[in-house]
């Protein structure tokens, strides 16, 4: 074929392929929007009816909102939630920012190792870590009893709001660390070097230059941590409820589960109020993200970073961070491990005298075995499906000409700012209102899978998007210049280059779905249990040994999968890929 003939036919082929590409892009956009925002429509509908959606008749009314706002118990729960979220945010942001500065800007020994270990609480099963805290540091806990009896020193009361905030802060500190560490990595150290060369002492450099550069990152991470804190359910339910300390999340959960007839309009109204607060906080966070770029000291690639010398404080600070990591993560996990092998854990009797296999043997029977099988299956299928959908969604958002493509990033980040219990309630009503398909999903594990995938979808996007930005768009244009369609260009050029991020996304999605449980609390039925719901139900019955064993199963699978991701696929714990 001559060159002239080829130039005549190639545009024709491209024009015939454009409707197909456009149709695919619109279908992806509709799929993502429908799955993420769709469940909130029946939730809103349920909050403005005078009776549950499954009852015929009814009228539209705002009475549920009025009853909720006039309930003193709700306002006490809201006050407790505000106190808890504020303390958690302050502790996480201050400590996370400090660790980020020490790791990224000082010569502290073992900085890189400490940085990676700091992220573990975000990856390990949150419910298991909380149970580990209870076993070790709770009233009558192994170490708290030892310290009380031998040193006559009281330990932190983890059943109080400050105690619960400390536990949540250790879990969410990695969020502040990652945000601040990323901001420091993008900023050149030339301003700090200039201040030191002018004779400014190290503390002055930190106070006058480094910390002001981190201000948007601190506000950004603080907004996200506050949002996640008001959504917390496991810690308030396990530690606050037995002492009559209710949060908004536990207030709604107990209104649904403890009543003979759940007051679904009030629960739905409370869920909508939480959804509104979370949405406003997410919009504020997006504004802060935009402002953060103004504080980067150089454009483009950062220059060489000169480390601040800690001098005599190098080893004391390293030991302090190591002690924190040991007490907040390692000790609770070890406490769980010991608890899983003993009849009961007490400082009065040596653990080896109480050794038993029964806590592990019971995992091979009944609801325990079924929960493990379901969680493993959901993590595998959900990891694959969500990674595939997010990959195409990311391509549409950043590699297409779809008019509404810029709305996709916000929607794909939205679910992580939404409390898991709200997602669970939303899907409950959505399944109830969609007839046969909804009934099938509600009565099977696949409905739980859908809720888990939507809630954890942002993890796949935040891993995939940075990698996609490093792939030059000239490759797309080169493919289309020879007549390839949009989808064929993405499939044959972009997606192969995106393979490392696909592996990283799958690993993170597998871990997060395996360890998730909040949305399932409103969807689980006999025969559809997952590890998290079974652990929670069993612990609330006062049975601790099998719960510890289930938690160790989660920890073991998580560690193995992360290790495979690190050594086989070269996936970093922070969610990237080693270049």
Specify the structural class. Answer: mainly alpha
Distance from N terminus to C terminus (CA atoms, Å) equals: 42 Å
Gross CATH architecture of the domain at 357-579: Orthogonal Bundle
Query: Radius of gyration, Cα only, in angstroms?
Result: 26 Å
> What's the SSE pattern?
HHHHHHHHHHHHHHHHHHHHHHHHHH
- Assembly state of the chains shown: single chain
Quickly count the helices: 26
Helix content class: over 70%
**Which fold name is given in CATH as the topology of the domain at 357-579?**
MetI-like fold
Described by the principal axes of the CA atoms, the overall outline is globular
Notable traits:
single chain, mainly alpha, MetI-like fold, disordered N terminus, disordered C terminus
Mind explaining what this structure looks like?
The protein has 579 residues and is mainly α. It has a domain at 357-579: MetI-like (MetI-like fold). It has 26 helices and no strands.
Q: Helices, strands, pairings?
A:
Layout: H1 3-37, H2 40-47, H3 63-69, H4 72-105, H5 111-118, H6 120-123, H7 126-137, H8 142-151, H9 161-186, H10 190-197, H11 202-230, H12 234-240, H13 248-257, H14 264-292, H15 314-339, H16 358-361, H17 366-398, H18 408-413, H19 420-433, H20 435-442, H21 445-469, H22 474-481, H23 486-497, H24 499-515, H25 531-540, H26 545-567
Gist?
Helices cover about 70% and strands about 0% of the residues.
């Amino acid at each position: 074929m001559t060159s002239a003939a080829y130039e005549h036919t190639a545009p024709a082929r491209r024009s015939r392929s454009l409707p197909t590409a456009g149709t695919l892009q619109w279908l992806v956009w509709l799929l993502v929007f429908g799955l993420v925002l769709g469940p909130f429509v029946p939730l809103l509908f349920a909050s403005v009816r005078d009776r549950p959606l499954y009852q015929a008749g009814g009228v539209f009314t705002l009475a549920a909102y009025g009853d909720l706002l006039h309930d003193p118990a709700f306002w006490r729960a809201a006050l407790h939630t505000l106190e808890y979220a504020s303390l958690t945010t302050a502790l996480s942001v201050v400590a996370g920012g400090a660790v980020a500065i020490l790791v990224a800007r000082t010569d502290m020994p073992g900085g890189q190792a400490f940085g990676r270990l700091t992220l573990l609480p975000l990856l390990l099963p949150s419910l298991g870590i909380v149970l580990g805290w209870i076993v070790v540091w709770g009233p009558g806990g192994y170490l708290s009893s030892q310290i009380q009896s031998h040193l006559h020193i009281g330990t932190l009361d983890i059943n109080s709001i400050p105690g619960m905030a400390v536990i949540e802060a250790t879990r969410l500190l990695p969020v502040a660390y990652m945000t601040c560490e990323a901001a420091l990595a993008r900023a050149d150290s030339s301003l700090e070097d200039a201040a030191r060369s002018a004779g400014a002492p190290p503390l002055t450099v930190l106070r006058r230059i480094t910390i002001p550069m981190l201000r948007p990152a601190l506000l950004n991470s603080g907004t996200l941590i506050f949002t996640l804190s008001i959504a917390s359910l496991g810690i308030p339910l396990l530690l606050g409820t037995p002492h009559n300390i209710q949060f908004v999340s536990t207030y709604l959960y107990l209104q649904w589960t403890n009543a003979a007839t759940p007051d679904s309009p009030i629960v739905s109204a409370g869920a909508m109020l939480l959804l509104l607060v979370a949405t406003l906080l997410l919009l504020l966070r997006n504004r802060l993200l935009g402002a953060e770029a103004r504080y980067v000291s150089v454009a483009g690639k950062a220059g060489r970073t000169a480390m601040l010398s800690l001098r005599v404080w190098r080893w004391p600070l390293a030991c302090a961070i190591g002690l924190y990591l040991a007490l907040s993560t390692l000790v609770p996990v070890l406490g769980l491990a010991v608890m899983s092998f003993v009849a009961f854990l007490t400082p009065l009797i040596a653990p080896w005298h109480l050794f038993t296999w029964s806590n592990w043997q019971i995992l091979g029977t009944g609801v325990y075995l079924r929960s493990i099988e379901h969680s493993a299956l959901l993590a595998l299928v959900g990891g694959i499906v969500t990674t595939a959908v997010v990959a195409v969604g990311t391509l549409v958002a950043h590699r297409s000409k779809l008019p509404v493509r810029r709305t996709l990033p916000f929607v794909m980040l939205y679910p992580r700012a939404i409390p898991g219990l709200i997602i669970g309630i939303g899907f409950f009503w959505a399944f109830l209102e969609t007839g046969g398909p909804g009934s099938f999903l509600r009565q099977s594990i696949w409905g739980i899978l859908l809720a888990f995938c939507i809630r954890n979808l942002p993890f796949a996007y935040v891993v995939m998007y940075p990698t996609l930005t490093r792939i030059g768009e000239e490759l797309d244009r080169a493919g289309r210049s020879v007549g390839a369609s949009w989808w064929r260009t993405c499939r044959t050029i972009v997606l192969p280059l995106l393979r490392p991020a696909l592996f990283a996304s799958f690993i993170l999605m597998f871990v997060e779905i395996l360890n998730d449980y909040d949305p399932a609390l409103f969807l689980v039925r006999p025969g559809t249990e997952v590890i998290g719901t079974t652990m929670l139900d069993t612990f609330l019955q006062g049975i601790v040994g099998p719960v510890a064993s289930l938690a160790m199963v989660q920890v073991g699978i998580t560690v193995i999968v992360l290790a495979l991701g690190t050594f086989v696929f070269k996936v970093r714990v922070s969610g990237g890929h080693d270049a």
